[in-house]
Specification:
- The structure is a single chain.
- A nine-stranded mixed β-sheet has the order 1-34-35-36-33-37-32-31-30.
- Helix content is 4%, strand content 53%.
- By secondary structure, the chain is mainly β.
Length: 471
């Protein structure tokens, strides 16, 4: 048996930064400092007045761990080793925050100046794991408000592979643009076939194509063959910022089964028509090719970067049977009774919710690009409510890489107090699991479970997913 996961998960160190607007002259800016005391981890918000540098010495203030200063949209990992850094100095020139580190050996390192307007357009999720096994996670919205995250995972870019001592910390910061567009509403007819959602897409040159609708994809993609001849393609790359300097890296987003090496560029199309709705200035990564899905040629993937065009995104599977389905973009909540409401956290534009199997917490990613539910082998082996079946299978990610897995059944799964029985699942390793901190059980909720609901609605403003039971 062979299963293909439609989506491509973006996993990067740090994307090259672009400016969303120039800051107006300001009297002060904020600096967010990650600290730890006997009471636990916290993030302090410290003001920096224009022309008045702020210096913190790690020896004088042993609670200080690191500074949270996003470089740009994407992810950044940092391994903080106790005693390596002596102090940092932050300055604000009225427009930008400038940060310098002084190392214990006397060397200094400057990091890119951060425009205050750009920073205020970011939401950041901060994960910290200590060498003693402790951990915490926070959300900073709009480079302004800080709160503890009680829903999402603790992310660890190093996946526990680097030994840490007491006083060492692994820090992962995921940053996303916070400004919603909420500019496009309407309904898109879909076809639900082979446990995938397909939309008819018309390119600017009038060609029709089949795209997969994937709420588990961070970016939208189209194949090189579907790219209009008139479209200009730009280079896409990653920038790595570290104590050793700045490096330009090949863009190879992380797919479900490994890095995707066949992305050849990015293109902005003046208008792309998806099921009758016109998406203007639509950005796509251009990929050499995509695998067949349910014997269908796939010309692209519609991800959350485009689908967040309205406050609410609603999928209707029409009783879960194969045939017609629909996607509704709206700025008012859809009317529906019998709702299960799940708070979610967005990390790398993946939506994490918490469920339970065996009364144990399990992190799930909602993913309409996955035909079936999935569980990491560690979770399946740990939980007694998961049954391994004899059948084995091969599954693929959007980049075409294959992995081996096993079939299984989740006997009982709970979401927000609602229970679901006998859910078929695929048990196999995905690259996304490698960046979860140790001890966390994880999986994917795919269409085999999502299609059991009359409606799946996502509120991007309140970070709530509403699931409506079938009548």
């Amino acid at each position: 048996m062979k299963i293909v996961l439609a989506h491509i998960m973006l996993i990067v160190l740090a994307l090259s930064m672009f400016t969303v607007g120039r800051a107006q002259i300001a009297d002060s800016a904020d600096l967010f400092v990650l600290k730890r005391s006997a009471a636990g981890y916290r993030i302090d918000r410290l003001p920096i007045a224009t022309g008045q540098p702020l210096t913190l010495n790690f020896e004088e203030d042993p609670e200080v761990i690191d500074i949270v200063l996003p470089v740009g949209p994407g992810g950044s990992g940092n391994l903080v080793q106790g005693g390596r850094i002596r102090s940092f100095t932050a300055r604000f020139d009225g427009r930008s925050v400038i940060l310098d580190y002084e190392f214990a050996n006397g060397e200094r390192q400057s990091f890119p100046a951060r425009d205050l307007t750009d920073l205020r357009g970011f939401d950041s999720h901060v994960s910290v794991t200590g060498g003693d096994g402790s951990s915490a996670r926070f959300i900073i919205r709009g480079y302004s408000n800080v709160r503890i995250d009680s829903i999402g995972p603790v992310m660890d870019m190093f996946g526990g592979r680097i030994p840490m001592q007491k006083g060492d910390y692994s820090i992962f910061i995921n940053t996303e643009l916070t400004a919603p567009r909420y500019a496009l509403t309407g309904e898109i007819p879909l076809v639900y076939s082979g446990k995938y959602l397909f939309a008819d897409v018309v390119s600017p040159d009038g060609r029709h194509g089949q795209f997969v609708v994937d709420i588990g994809a961070s970016t939208s993609m189209l194949t090189e063959a579907f790219l209009p001849d008139s479209a200009e393609m730009s280079e896409v790359f990653m920038m790595e910022y570290s104590a050793g300097g700045t490096r330009k890296l090949k863009y190879a987003p992380g797919g479900a089964t490994g890095n995707v090496e066949n992305v050849i560029g990015t293109a902005t199309l003046q208008a792309m028509t998806i099921g009758g709705l016109v998406f203007k200035q639509a950005e796509f990564d251009v990929i050499k090719s995509l695998p067949l899905l349910h014997d269908r040629q796939v010309d692209g993937i519609i991800g959350l970067d485009l689908l967040r065009a309205a406050r609410f995104l609603t999928l209707r599977y029409n009783s879960g049977t194969e045939g017609t389905a629909s996607l509704l973009l709206s700025n008012t909540p859809p009317a529906q009774n019998n709702l299960i409401q799940l708070p979610f956290v967005s990390i790398r534009r993946l939506m994490y919710v918490r469920g339970q199997i065996d009364s144990r917490p399990v992190l799930f990613i909602l993913d309409s690009g996955a035909p079936d539910c999935m569980l990491q082998p560690q979770a399946a082996e740990t939980l007694t409510k998961v049954i391994f079946l004899d059948s084995t299978l091969t599954f693929q990610g959007g980049g075409g890489q294959s992995k081996e897995g096993k079939l299984g059944t989740i006997q009982l799964l709970s979401l927000a107090g609602a229970s679901f029985i006998d859910i078929p699942c695929v048990i196999g390793e995905l690259s996304i699991y490698s960046t979860l901190g140790r001890g966390q059980l994880a999986g994917i909720i795919g269409n085999s479970l999502l299609s059991r609901f009359a409606m799946v609605s996502i509120d991007f403003q309140e970070n709530i997913i509403s699931l409506a039971h079938l009548n």
